[in-house]
Amino acid sequence: MTGPSNNDFTVKFANVNGTGSSSANGMFMKSIFRMGVPVVGKNYFPSNIQGLPTWYEVRVNENGYLAPSGSIDIMLAMNAQTYGQDLDELESGGYLIYDSTWPREELMLRDDITVLGVPLANMCNEAFNTARSRTLMKNTAYVGVLAALLEMDMKVIEQLLLDTFGAKTHLIDANKQALKMGFEYAKENFDCPLPFKTVASDKTKDHFIIDGNSTAALGCVYAGATVGSWYPITPSTSLMDAFSRYCGNFRVDEKTDKNNYSIIQAEDELSAIGMALGAGWNGARSFTPTSGPGISLMNEFIGYGYYAEIPTVIFDVQRTGPSTGMPTRTQQCDILSCAYASHGDTKHVCLYPADPEEAFYLSVNAFDLAEQLQTPVFVLSDLDIGMNDWMIRDLEWDDKYVPNRGKVLDKDALEGMEQFHRYLDSDGDGIPYRTIPGVHPKGAYFTRGSGHNMFGGYTEDSDEYQDVVDRLLIKWETAKSIVPSPMKDFNKKNKIAILSIGSCDDAIREARDSMSKDGHDFNYLRVRAFPFSNEVDEFIDAHETVFVVEQNRDGQLAKLLQVETNCDVSKIKSIRLYNGIPISSKDLVERIMKEIPSGKAA
Amino acid sequence: MSYIKKPKIYGDKFTKNKLGMTFTDYEGAMSTLCAGCGHDSITGAIIQTVFDLDIPPHRMIKMSGIGCSSKTPAYFANQSHGFNSVHGRMPAVATGANAANRELFCIGVSGDGDTLSIGMGQFSHAVRRNVNMLYVIENNGVYGLTKGQFSASADVGSTAKKGAANKHVPIDPCQIAITLGATFVARSFSGDKDQLIPLLKAGLMHKGFAVVDVISPCVTFNDHEGSTKSYMSTRESKREAVYTDYIPPFKEIEISYEEGSTIEVDLHDGGKVILRKSDDSYSPQSRGDSIKNIRSATERGELLTGLLYIDESQHDFTDTENLIDAPLNSVDHQILCPGKKSLKNLLDSYR
């Protein structure tokens, strides 16, 4: 790894939660974005309201790598509770900035770094009157310090303040003042700029900064979802918050001021999924966002949805398990529990977005698949995708999009029918026709989770029962052909490959670039859906070794591949990084290179 | 399951309602419950209710959970969509269905196990949301399908078939519902169609959550001496606090009621509920009085029946949520989707 250079470094902010630091950190990040330099922000926050340590890491990178770099070049140590830890984490040659209102001997222990003390509290106590603004403006002042050290464009920052605070001129003035104080202090007391700094570029055109819960929610809006039920749980809550916000903008009927959507905060996840199924059964596009513990609670109804064949979309924004785990840390630990959720023989269509951009498209896709296949469809995102600030390409939308409602018989079709049978496979693709309540008396059928035959009638007859569950397997085969295909980068001269899932994507992109420079070229496939298409089998077959990279302890993707493909399992080498922090290319390279015999070109 | 062949026809085959449909058109599959089960009488009362109210069967949905009671939606209105969900979780499904299409009539059938044990949470929250549905509890004090365990509505001292007495205090769905803010609470007996049918009618036409707790004896596991939910015991302890009439919209009130003893409540559909009191202290429009009446009856060893509480002034769930008047499931995608241009503007706000 090379050291920091212009437009290639990482700044970490160590704060106390509840002190208003996140808006200042966001301002720092967005200003760099507006200078045309790619950035990404990772938030490492506690499951707490106020008073505990929280970190925000901004990676500035001209190549647009979005995973953590794994090295911290500047540490904004604003939290005395974590000075020791923050000091340790800094790369050799890095810079530590702290509030020198209270000088700290212990921060001087490392002679391989530069400590820059700024009397932030003193400065703000003199300049501002209220306790609140004294606290808040310290944050803005350190952005001023960074602006001087990194030679950021002050005009850009000031414009951002105007855009952010709009008519609240008193806030604009105070922030400008704090920014200037920090900036001038740094100019007077330190060698500005540092050896690495920001340089205006043009790499952020047609990009924007957003989190994946927002884009997934936007996908729900664009797909035409009207009923969203949920129970609050980190890290999925902001998905429903975003849906609510977008619906407020786009879904209120202008004439009547009434809502073209229904958001129901349920009493628990058991109810949230029940509501989503009730709405899906009754012809609305419905969804429920949750996380691992919610999936556990929803299991019974998920099996019902599978067996009674009811469309709905379940967003699982994964967090670390097991049990309550670490609610504010990321993992990909529900791959197996979603794939086979519920008792009895069940398996479910799952989609795996890699970033907020894909979360939008796969969210729309999930609603189409749920209705085409008449089944609950999972979108497995994670905390990293869902809650962190990513720079992604502009989302595209085709106004010609028409929702695929699948095989739904309308009034006219029913009128002309002699008799409707709910679970008859008339087309041979395993997908029966369904009807929506309220449309026509001939469409009536009895939906049940108990044994039923192909006509929809109750059964305890072995053959009749088996007909239906076997037909669901035909539907599963159909699903294979219509779910999103994997993303693939294949060169037949490479014998070793990486196979991965979801948010590991960008660390892998960077790791491959880096290992390629050292003469190790790897092919790459990222699965985007379960069931796996045949392409996945073919890809594994075409290699000698396939490193399966994922973020959980037990290698859940590797296991799923072993069970659900016909590949030679001895080719699979599982690489697992699961400490709750998004994986960095640095760690990944280290892990993969350990497995490659020295001298052997990949 | 009984193998005794039972007649499927409950009533008059020839009389037609305003839609030109006969009673038979509102029937369902043949019941597989035990001969003499109270639930079958309730099924008959529901058929009579929807027939009399001229409800187009396809404009009605039938919801249930798990248990003997929850099988019954299969036995009425086979031209209506039915949803036999999982144990105790019908209220959630009904709530979602109601959000998707607020125009449909919704009848939920549950039991004392399904509502008062595993489903207590969902029941409470459906009450709280005032979901527009008729929620019938077929209450027999016992788990029938699993062969006779006490349910949460069994009275203290009531004995099981094999003689063991229940030790835990019963949960009364009516008192619970009134406390939770229910807008329509009634109690009746499966063996009293004259009382039950008008209550079901008024409950179905009430805009909001209507709970009708129907004592429905289990002939196989809870109809012996010592049970407080047997036919005999219910007939003896039942006291009708009020007789309820439902008068549909635009229909003249034909019977003259004695002044002072009646209460008239206007329903949102334009119909009326006329209550004829048998007791001057009875007041179905005060939660406090209503609970007091139920409790003092219980202390006297009586089961107070009739319309116990009604409040027509509350918004139902879809109104509270400010949903458009049309069903959400019928809104055109062009209206739901903000389109390409709005997306571009939205993204600009994130730069």
Write the layout of secondary structure elements.
The complex is a heterodimer of chains A (602) and B (351).
Chain A: E1 8-16, H1 21-34, E2 39-44, E3 53-61, E4 72-77, H2 83-89, E5 90-99, E6 114-118, H3 120-127, H4 131-149, H5 154-165, H6 169-189, E7 207-210, H7 212-223, E8 227-230, H8 237-250, E9 262-265, H9 269-281, E10 286-290, H10 292-308, E11 312-318, H11 335-339, E12 349-351, H12 356-373, E13 376-382, H13 383-387, E14 390-393, H14 411-415, E15 446-448, H15 462-482, E16 487-489, E17 496-501, H16 505-517, E18 523-527, E19 529-530, H17 534-541, E20 545-550, H18 556-564, E21 572-576, H19 585-595
Parallel strand pairs in A: 1-4, 4-5, 5-6, 8-9, 8-10, 10-11, 11-13, 12-13, 17-18, 17-20, 20-21
Antiparallel strand pairs in A: 1-3, 2-3, 7-14, 12-19, 16-18
Chain B: H1 38-52, E1 60-64, H2 68-71, E2 81-84, H3 90-100, E3 105-111, H4 112-116, H5 120-129, E4 133-139, E5 142-143, E6 149-150, H6 173-180, E7 184-189, H7 193-205, E8 209-215, H8 231-237, E9 238-240, E10 242-247, E11 262-266, E12 272-277, H9 287-299, E13 303-310, H10 317-320, H11 333-336, H12 339-348
Parallel strand pairs in B: 1-2, 1-3, 3-4, 4-8, 7-8, 9-13
Antiparallel strand pairs in B: 5-6, 7-13, 10-12, 11-12
Helix pairs in contact in B: 1-7, 3-5
How many runs of DSSP E, i.e. beta strands of chain A? 21
Oligomeric organization of the protein chains: heterodimer
By CATH reckoning, the class of chain B would read: Alpha Beta
Distance between the termini of chain B: 66 Å
Write down the Rg of chain A: 27 Å
**CATH architecture tag of the largest domain in chain A:** 3-Layer(aba) Sandwich
Could you give me the name of the CATH homologous superfamily of the largest domain in chain A? Thiamin diphosphate (ThDP)-binding fold, Pyr/PP domains
Stretches of chain A where pLDDT falls below 50 for ≥5 residues? Answer: none
Largest interface: A-B, 74 and 60 residues
Helices of chain A, by number, come to: 19
